[in-house]
Design the sequence.
């Protein structure tokens, strides 16, 4: 038993934190909030150069093939921003979906570009029904000239406005799991992407209007799409959780400093037990998310059955981020809702990620199924 | 990170040895819920006998230094022991011995060499059971406010007078680990002292308190409590641990461990039984576990027990890897207490009235859930209330006071 980070993980943490402090301090993160695209080219190139976009991609495809727990150290640091950009969408979920679902040829064609950052690949799963299960996938391509024609909408697709490539989950049969994955050029005629306005971060609408794709666009085998996606999601979700843990950690640290420095009634507000209660609630959520996430990562990295742990981690982390931000707002009062202070970016991200890749109730039910109650 | 102990060949052999030994030596009878006070006492005697045989092997206090009669084992072996004993629904020690656990740890850190040699072996070998006496009618959460029970130096002795409440368990004790006031006019935190004394001295009277809890020998928790009166009880000065009026520093060690700083490895015994009950019991023709609302409740309960387990594992590792700790001890305690209290409602809702009866025909899970309905409430206060745990966390986080408070020292007396 050893719950410490390894030496190389500590080094990665230091490098990532230094990068974040230099390249993505609060004003940069706040400045990016209203952009249509989450991708800031300068930041993206630097991150690519550090090898962060290929951290999970095996060396034979141009990545560094690190373990999930190594990548988690990085994602915690990115989550502290919270740094926007398709890091997770392309570098984790995109890469793992290609790795699990694509043929060898397709992997060789797609993965090196993802690792270098030239390709930004996001996976389009959900539709207006907002379901994260296979039954929610209704977009059905029509077969034409040995290829496919797509008409319809994918909704709540993360970072689609910065994507060069899409992997689209489509319905190709009657059975619930009869889903296939299509690789679509995000700039192809008939594809339009639009960031949804409001209190969510870079969740997009992707519309397909008579989009024609070749037969070769089918990723791997027909009808095997959901199985591949499920495997990719099981490995990707804990990294999204790590990003959330980093977010909770940043929100916690902000709150602690604020209670130590904000003086009212002649004393720092941290002296008031009512205020302390918010901080206690916050740190309990933070640690719940941290340890459920890290146990799931450890199980995956060591080949243990991890399905139930992964579902639990996402359920706990989604709730934790939302509650951590709520507690932080109670601590910060007016200061917390000032956009330039930076808490609001977390709050909006916490709401966005609450549902992204499945909300707590959905994951708890999948956890119960996995535990065979 | 590695959440599990990786066992060597030697350690796996040790596990097989422990398992075989426990299967041969743990009487099946100790796993019963006692039916009467006499039966309860009988079971206690069986647990004490088991404690002595475990103690003789060095397995009762596995990580305690061997030179004082402990097991002298490393943490990995201790985990194996805890896990194997847990299979029998027991902990180490297998009976209520909080004064032994916390008193011995405090003596290791703050006692003299002579005291360690004199006081520790009988604890580690299971020859004595020890209650801790902290709370008084006027000093509960505010431990530093202890003043009703006093000790006055008289020649080579101290003379103790006063009253302690919410003490111990059923079935009496051999020794007492207590905090008293030794300078009624002294400054706060500079007027307390700890004593480890014989419980059978003249002038000590024990009277049971009638409480809502049940379970007289429930490991670290005990639902049964006593009032203890001291009437001119004469004890040798040798029994004073840590120095006269130096008791607050000793208390930091005691409280750190009592507040969960030591961590815990083990399953949640209520959860296993609750799930089994819900799988085996049908309502309107459908097992409870297959009804969506109850399934959702079970998921919420399970997740809280898992988070509690992970906090326990983390604290266990922090302690034995000798890593710096801050708010983690009181956090575990707070989480455990609030979860237990919340679970009383969640279980009542899922299981219904069968959670409230110990009836052998109509009760649930052999009376275990009824015990949880009571003890989930009772457990909110012992070892510091939920509010005290939060106050502690805030101080450790560094917001409750002008200077950040450190966690209590729990290491001492190298093996």
Sequence:
């Amino acid at each position: 038993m050893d719950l410490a980070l390894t030496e190389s993980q500590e080094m990665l943490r230091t490098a990532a934190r230094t990068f974040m402090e230099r390249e993505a301090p609060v004003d940069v993160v706040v400045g990016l909030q209203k952009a249509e695209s989450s991708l800031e080219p300068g930041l993206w190139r630097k991150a690519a150069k550090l090898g962060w976009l290929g951290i999970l991609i095996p060396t034979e495809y141009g990545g560094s093939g690190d373990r999930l727990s190594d990548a988690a150290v990085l994602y915690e640091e990115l989550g502290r921003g919270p740094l926007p950009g398709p890091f997770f969408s392309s570098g984790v979920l995109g890469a793992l979906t290609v790795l699990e679902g694509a043929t060898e040829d397709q992997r060789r064609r797609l993965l090196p570009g993802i690792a270098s950052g030239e390709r930004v690949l996001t996976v389009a799963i959900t539709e207006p029904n907002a379901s994260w299960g296979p039954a929610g996938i209704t977009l059905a391509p029509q077969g034409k000239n040995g290829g496919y024609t797509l008409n319809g909408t994918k909704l709540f697709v993360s970072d689609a406005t910065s994507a060069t490539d899409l992997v689209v989950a489509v319905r190709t049969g009657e059975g619930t799991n009869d889903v296939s994955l299509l690789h679509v050029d995000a700039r192809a005629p008939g594809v339009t992407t639009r960031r949804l306005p409001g209190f969510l971060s870079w969740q997009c609408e992707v519309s397909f209007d008579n989009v024609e794709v070749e037969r070769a666009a089918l990723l791997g085998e027909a009808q095997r799409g959901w199985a591949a996606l499920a495997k990719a999601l099981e490995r990707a979700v804990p990294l999204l959780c790590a990003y959330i843990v980093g977010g909770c950690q940043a929100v916690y640290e902000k709150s602690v400093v604020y209670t130590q420095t904000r003086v009212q009634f002649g004393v720092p507000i941290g002296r008031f037990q009512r205020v302390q209660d918010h901080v206690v609630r916050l740190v309990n959520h933070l640690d719940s998310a941290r340890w459920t996430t890290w146990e799931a990562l450890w199980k995956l990295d060591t080949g243990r059955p991890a399905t139930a742990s992964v579902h639990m981690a996402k359920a706990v982390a989604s709730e934790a981020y939302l509650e951590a931000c709520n507690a932080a707002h109670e601590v910060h009062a007016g200061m917390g809702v000032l956009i330039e202070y930076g808490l609001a970016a977390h709050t909006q991200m916490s709401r966005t990620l609450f549902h992204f890749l499945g909300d707590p109730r959905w994951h708890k039910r999948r956890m119960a199924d996995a535990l065979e109650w | 990170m590695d959440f599990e102990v990786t066992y060597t060949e030697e350690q796996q052999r040790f596990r097989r040895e422990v398992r075989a030994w426990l299967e041969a030596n743990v009487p099946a009878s100790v796993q019963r819920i006692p039916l009467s006070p006499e039966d309860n006492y009988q079971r206690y005697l069986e647990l004490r006998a088991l404690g002595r045989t475990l103690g003789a092997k060095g397995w009762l206090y596995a990580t305690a230094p061997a030179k004082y009669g402990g097991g002298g084992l490393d943490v990995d072996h201790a985990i194996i022991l805890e896990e194997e004993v847990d299979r029998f629904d027991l902990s180490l020690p297998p009976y209520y011995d909080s004064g032994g656990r916390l008193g011995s740890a405090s003596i290791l850190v703050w006692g003299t060499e002579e005291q360690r040699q004199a006081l520790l072996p009988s604890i580690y070998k299971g020859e004595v059971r020890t209650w801790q006496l902290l709370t008084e009618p006027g000093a509960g959460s505010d431990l530093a406010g202890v003043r009703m029970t006093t000790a006055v130096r008289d020649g080579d002795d101290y003379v103790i007078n006063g009253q302690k409440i919410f003490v111990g368990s059923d079935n009496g004790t051999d020794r007492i680990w207590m905090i008293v006031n030794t300078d009624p006019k002294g400054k706060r935190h500079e007027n307390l002292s700890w004593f480890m004394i014989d419980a059978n001295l003249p002038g000590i009277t024990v009277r049971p308190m009638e409480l809502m809890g049940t379970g007289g020998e429930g490991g670290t928790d005990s639902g049964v409590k006593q009032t203890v009166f001291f009437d001119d009880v004469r004890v040798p000065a040798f029994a004073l641990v840590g120095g006269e009026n130096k008791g607050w520093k000793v208390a930091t060690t005691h409280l750190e461990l009592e507040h969960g700083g030591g961590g815990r490895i083990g399953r949640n015994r209520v959860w296993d039984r609750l799930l089994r009950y819900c799988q085996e019991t049908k309502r309107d023709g459908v097992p409870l576990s297959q009804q969506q609302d109850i399934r959702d409740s079970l998921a919420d309960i399970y997740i809280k027990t898992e988070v509690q387990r992970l906090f326990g594992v983390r604290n266990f590792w922090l302690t034995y890897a000798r890593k710096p700790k801050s708010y983690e001890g009181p956090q575990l305690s707070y989480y455990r207490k609030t979860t237990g209290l919340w679970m009383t409602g969640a279980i009542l809702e899922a299981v219904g009235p069968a959670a409230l009866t110990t009836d052998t025909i109509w009760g649930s899970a052999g009376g275990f859930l009824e015990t949880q309905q009571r003890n989930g409430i009772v457990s909110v206060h012992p070892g510091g209330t939920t509010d005290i745990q939060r106050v502690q966390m805030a101080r450790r986080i560094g917001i409750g006071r002008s200077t950040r408070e450190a966690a209590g020292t729990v290491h001492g007396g190298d093996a």
In short: The first helix of chain B runs from residue 9 to 25. Chain B has a mean pLDDT of 91. Chain B has three domains: 9-94, 130-245, 262-397.
